[in-house]
């Protein structure tokens, strides 16, 4: 069963969280028939390629209660929705420049009863709020991404890592990250399976880029 995959790596989740993760399969199947947010071939591997992949960020950072996290270019809610299930006391703001995708995110969050998710149809550059962390997956190259983050970080720090960016990336990053001071975490060290062989979390402290 798909939920077993999540339980294998996050065995301490509550019954409510288990129900929420389990509900994602039907919710995304239903929404995907109306609005395409996950490629057809990936719906079969939703739990590995989308949900567990999103939770890779949690292996690098356990967000403290009260942390504010922005997910830029969330699409159908990745990585924001799985992280919001895992960290119910962290506030997640999910933005995407395509309105239909935000319709899906709002629908999924509402069905799950997630109180810690806010979703906006807007470009990240236009958002004026401040956050402790920014997460993302598959949106743009890191140097461009960083230009969207000016003025978006809170000064106060109360997490194990300094406020900053946690970006899910794949493949060879040498050229893209050249000159940037970042830490790279290989997800294969946390999760089994070929899919994770090339998958990484890139962490940049906000003090290490111009914001
Ligand atoms: C390839 S999809 C990835 C979606 C999701 N993060 C995932 O991994 O499944 C990239 C998304 O980024 C959004 N996007 C691109 N530029 C953006 C911007 N400046 N602000 C907000 N969203 C943006 C697009 O609309 C698209 O939904």
Briefly summarize what is shown.
By secondary structure, the chain is α/β, with parallel strands linked by helices. It has helices at 2-9, 15-34, 40-43, 46-60, 80-86, 99-112, 142-147; strands at 68-72, 91-96, 117-121, 133-137, 164-170, 183-186, 199-205.
Task: Explain what the structure shows.
With 211 residues, this protein is α/β, with parallel strands linked by helices. The protein has a single domain, classed as Rossmann fold. The protein contains 7 helices and 7 strands, in the order ααααβαβαββαβββ. The chain has a 7-stranded mixed β-sheet with strand order 3-2-1-4-5-7-6, covered by helices on one side. The N and C termini lie far apart (44 Å). It binds S-adenosylmethionine. The site of S-adenosylmethionine has 16 residues, from strand 2.
Order of helices and strands: HHHHEHEHEEHEEE
Give the integer mean of the pLDDT values.
95
The major sheet is characterized as: 7 strands, mixed
Our measurement of the CA-to-CA distance between the termini, rounded to an integer number of angstroms, reads: 44 Å
CATH topology: Rossmann fold
What is the H level of CATH, i.e. the homologous superfamily? Answer: Vaccinia Virus protein VP39
- Small-molecule components bound: S-adenosylmethionine
CATH A-level architecture: 3-Layer(aba) Sandwich
Tell me the name of the CATH class.
Answer: Alpha Beta
Task: Summarize the amount of helix as a percent range.
Answer: 25-40%
Oligomer: single chain
Secondary-structure class:
alpha/beta
Question: Strand fraction band?
Answer: 15-25%
Which of globular, elongated, flat, extended, rod-shaped describes the shape?
Answer: globular
Count of strand segments: 7
How many individual helices?
A: 7
Q: What order do the strands of the largest sheet run in, or round the barrel if closed?
A: 3-2-1-4-5-7-6
User: Can you tell me the residue ranges where pLDDT is under 50 for at least 5 consecutive residues?
Assistant: none
- Integer tally of domains: 1
Radius of gyration (Å): 16 Å
